Description:
- By secondary structure, the chain is of the alpha+beta class.
- The chain contains 13 helices and 18 strands.
- It has helices at residues 24-49, 80-84, 110-117, 119-131, 138-141, 145-176, 182-212, 236-257, 271-298, 439-442, 481-485, 500-503, 574-585, and strands spanning 55-57, 89-90, 214-216, 224-226, 231-233, 333-334, 336-337, 340-341, 378-379, 383-386, 396-397, 430-431, 458-466, 504-514, 538-543, 554-555, 561-573, 614-615.
- Strands 9, 10, 13, 14, 15, 17 and 18 form a seven-stranded mixed β-sheet that branches. It has a three-stranded antiparallel β-sheet with strand order 2-1-5, with no helix packed on it.
- β7 and β8 (340-341) form a beta hairpin.
Amino acid sequence: xxxxxxxxxxxxxxxxxxxxxxxxxxxxxxxxxxxxxxxxxxxxxxxxxxxxxxxxxxxxxxxxxxxxxxxxxxxxxxxxxxxxxxxxxxxxxxxxxxxxxxxxxxxxxxxxxxxxxxxxxxxxxxxxxxxxxxxxxxxxxxxxxxxxxxxxxxxxxxxxxxxxxxxxxxxxxxxxxxxxxxxxxxxxxxxxxxxxxxxxxxxxxxxxxxxxxxxxxxxxxxxxxxxxxxxxxxxxxxxxxxxxxxxxxxxxxxxxxxxxxxxxxxxxxxxxxxxxxxxxxxxxxxxxxxxxxxxxxxxxxxxxxxxxxxxxxxxxxxxxxxxxxxxxxxxxxxxxxxxxxxxxxxxxxxxxxxxxxxxxxxxxxxxxxxxxxxxxxxxxxxxxxxxxxxxxxxxxxxxxxxxxxxxxxxxxxxxxxxxxxxxxxxxxxxxxxxxxxxxxxxxxxxxxxxxxxxxxxxxxxxxxxxxxxxxxxxxxxxxxxxxxxxxxxxxxxxxxxxxxxxxxxxxxxxxxxxxxxxxxxxxxxxxxxxxxxxxxxxxxxxxxxxxxxxxxxxxxxxxxxxxxxxxxxxxxxxxxxxxxxxxxxxxxxxxxxxxxxxxxxxxxxxxxxxxxxxxx
Length: 616
């Protein structure tokens, strides 16, 4: 019998127990996915809960008119902030007033009201509708159906993302307990994270498209709208892009670092695995960027703005009637009510050095004391008044002299032309220069451009300035001057906060006209003369607009604004004025209604004059 004691059998090893524990890098992948799923669930719920998470209105200074320009003549002229409120925003589920995509405060949509009541009645009702939040949610109220469908699609995807994130939160927690089979787990994880990644990318594209597309709405008030003209992105869109990046990362982590075999031994992370992860992320980000650029490019987001038609006056009709919707704030009002001053300070005032008005302007309503050309204000008009509206004792006052009797201005013009106004043109104060024996005050001048002017007479010239003017453009000078003063919306504020005395100012200089070229000034059009004795003795105070529609019983609501008044009366040649009128005729806007002297407001009573007069 053979001896087998020392025989060795090759290739047979002791049994090794099967490994079922999850590899460490798979555990890390599931833990990372669990954290991302939890963050997504929280952020998406916040986006859905915030009524202004997607977009918010821009500052009023950057808001154009939103209502159709053809309806301005009927009294419909609003920016989005005036219709919706300056803090209005839209969220994914509802707006900042709580209305969803299918709701409106006015119940029916706008076109229904127009059909039932007629356009004039609905326009007249706009202020009350604004006050009751009837315009919100505007997408539903304005019947912007395709925009509403886009918003609802994004909302639906957000609800899917919320549900999927919660499911994946549970799934990855269970996977960490090593309960889910590896093959089924990986397939399920990859599928859901792919759906989440695609969903976030679609939401990003919808958000970009919604903002840049010009949407058509079924109503005559706002028939088209591009949201980017009126709104800016709030925090939801950046979260969507972050969500896309995060879900793409987890998708690639699931593909690279998890296995389809239970307990499969996995090598430690290698350069090859890292390259796969990086490559997948890079490819996904490139796809996301390409999709975003395609959507924005398709909506002409990168196209240059359409050239401004040089023949269209951007300031036309900008004179405001309302401070709030439909309140007619800027109509003249009674100066006093029950014996109490009911208005802000008025102009023109007594500017004699040392004079102090009787209306308390408080601590913060102070005039601009630097020259306007050193501020952001620019001249937007020039016009003048018959006589001086301001009083400067010894320079232009009730003892001044002129070439004709004051009652002459209630008759036909001395030049035989049309009347100076529909009724009497009120004569203000006169200077003391006139001398009937000196031919420069009596020799007639052949006026070529100005009308209703008389050599030897006193005229107070006003140069309104504004920070809201079309400064530096062909449309800088406007008639009426209010259009120039309020040309650009959002610069001049009545209450939020009041800044009219900082953003609106008037230069005032008073002249006696002479027919003598030694007194020629070549550019009276550009602004107050400042040299030698011109513009050196200055009074500065806050007041209002002037003109004969106001007196000491009826006052202006265009206040407070800064006045800078030269206290000295100067002589200037008639040709200087005629040159100014020639320049006025050359402006893009039609300034013919300012080529003749306007009537002067009566001197403002002490109790209506601000007590903040300063000198320079």
